[in-house]
């Protein structure tokens, strides 16, 4: 079999276990290649089925895999099978034996798009976690970024490097957001033990993910949950309470928390509004001066004395949670792009824009 064979077999559904998997056979001779191993339950030959008419039967040597075949065209045949590894692997191996070349779905998409930006956008759309990020990627698939880059190239061709640089700088300002369209921001909640971090992360996530217990130091590990804040994908992490202690397990939890904090895109410092403000709280503020400050347990009487300004929340009653979510979103994406705007979303695109600025 030639590696350049135009006849390809592609798994279109994500790899892994699932209810149904879709395998595409595409290229010259696709209909004949599938027909050689498919027997319809109706007894009809596969070429007798009309376009988009579904054919149920078995594929491969008896007893064969139960599949549904959809004939999109003579050169494009979909095979829908059980979603386990074995069924997909058997079909792919059989079709490779028929002269097909197995290709990854991303490579297959690239073959179908003349514009690499459109192909890349369509590929990462499968990884979009929210409607908001999917809409931005769909704009790029429909040509928003291509048009902007063409405008930069035209400005350079006209000798207007200043205009080209201005356009490129506008796009580069959106690059960090573009990188996060499929890779969530890391938001870490930290603070002293028993300030309500676990309850707060549960309130933000909308369901109980972190264990809540009145005993200080209950959280010994980093507990993370994927959610969306104002439409942006976020990984919220609940860390062990930051404090000095002799317990080896608690010290290990604090070390894990500090490592997670070092990689955080945003830190949320949580304090107990009902507890007195001490030098230890002030040290946390100094350690993370850019953090979002939260005074939790607003359902309890506040402690007397001054404290750093911040948002008042009650994870128990759900008070202040929406305001906290808005504050997190504003820090992560302070200037979200308008609908239809060009947004670079790959390192290659960012590198091209930086060269245009130089």
Strand content: 15-25%
How large, in whole angstroms, is the Cα Rg? 27 Å
* Overall body shape: flat
Largest sheet: 7 strands, mixed
Work out the count of structural domains.
Answer: 3
What's the CATH topology name of the largest domain? Rossmann fold
Helix content: 25-40%
The number of E-state strands comes to 13
CATH architecture of the largest domain: 3-Layer(aba) Sandwich
* CATH H-level homologous superfamily name of the largest domain: P-loop containing nucleotide triphosphate hydrolases
Q: Mind telling me the CATH class of the largest domain?
A: Alpha Beta
Chain-wise SSE layout:
Elements: E1 8-11, E2 20-26, H1 30-35, E3 38-40, E4 54-59, E5 65-73, E6 76-82, H2 85-97, E7 101-102, H3 105-112, H4 116-125, H5 131-141, H6 144-157, H7 161-172, H8 175-179, E8 185-191, H9 197-205, E9 223-229, E10 232-238, H10 248-262, E11 266-272, H11 279-287, E12 292-296, E13 311-312, H12 321-332, H13 347-357
Parallel strand pairs: 1-7, 8-10, 8-11, 11-12, 12-13
Antiparallel strand pairs: 1-2, 2-6, 3-4, 4-5, 5-6, 9-10
Structure description:
It contains 13 helices and 13 strands. With 358 residues, it is of the alpha/beta class. It has three domains: 8-112, 2-Layer Sandwich (Gyrase A, domain 2); 116-174 and 338-357, no CATH class; 185-332, Rossmann fold. The strands form two sheets. A seven-stranded mixed sheet has the order 3-4-5-6-2-1-7. β4 (54-59) and β5 (65-73) form a beta hairpin. α7 (161-172) runs antiparallel to α13. The protein is flat. The two termini are 47 Å apart. The model is unreliable at 210-220 (pLDDT under 50).
């Amino acid at each position: 079999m030639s590696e350049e064979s135009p006849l390809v077999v592609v798994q279109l559904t994500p790899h892994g276990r699932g209810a149904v998997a879709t395998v595409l056979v595409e290229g010259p001779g696709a209909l004949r290649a599938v027909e050689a191993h498919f027997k319809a339950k109706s007894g009809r030959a596969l070429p007798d089925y009309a376009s988009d008419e579904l054919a149920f039967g078995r594929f491969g040597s008896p007893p064969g895999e139960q599949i549904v075949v959809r004939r999109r065209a003579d050169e494009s045949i979909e095979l829908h099978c059980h979603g386990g590894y074995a069924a997909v692997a058997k079909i792919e191996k059989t079709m490779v034996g028929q002269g097909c070349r197995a290709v990854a779905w991303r490579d297959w998409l690239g073959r179908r798009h003349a514009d690499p930006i459109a192909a890349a956008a369509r590929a990462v759309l499968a990884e979009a976690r929210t409607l908001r990020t999917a809409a931005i990627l769909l704009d790029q698939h429909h040509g928003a970024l291509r048009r902007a880059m063409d405008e930069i190239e035209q400005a350079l061709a006209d000798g207007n490097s200043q205009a080209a640089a201005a356009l490129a700088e506008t796009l580069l300002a959106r690059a960090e957001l573009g990188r996060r369209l499929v890779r969530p921001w890391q938001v870490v909640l930290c603070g002293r033990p028993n300030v309500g971090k676990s309850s707060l992360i549960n309130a933000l996530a909308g369901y109980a993910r972190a264990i809540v217990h009145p005993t200080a130091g209950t959280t010994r590990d980093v507990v993370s949950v994927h959610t969306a804040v104002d439409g942006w994908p976020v990984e919220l992490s609940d860390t062990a309470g930051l404090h000095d202690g002799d317990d080896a397990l608690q010290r290990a939890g604090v070390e894990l928390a500090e490592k997670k904090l070092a990689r955080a895109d945003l830190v949320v410092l949580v304090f107990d509004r009902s507890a007195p403000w001490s030098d230890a709280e002030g040290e946390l503020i100094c350690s993370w001066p850019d953090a979002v400050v939260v005074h939790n347990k607003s359902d309890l009487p506040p402690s007397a004395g001054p404290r750093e300004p911040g948002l008042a929340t009650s994870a128990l009653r759900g008070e202040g949670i929406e305001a906290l979510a808005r504050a997190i979103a504003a820090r992560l994406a302070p200037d979200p792009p308008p609908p239809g705007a060009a947004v670079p979303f790959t390192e290659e695109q960012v590198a091209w824009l930086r060269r245009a600025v130089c």
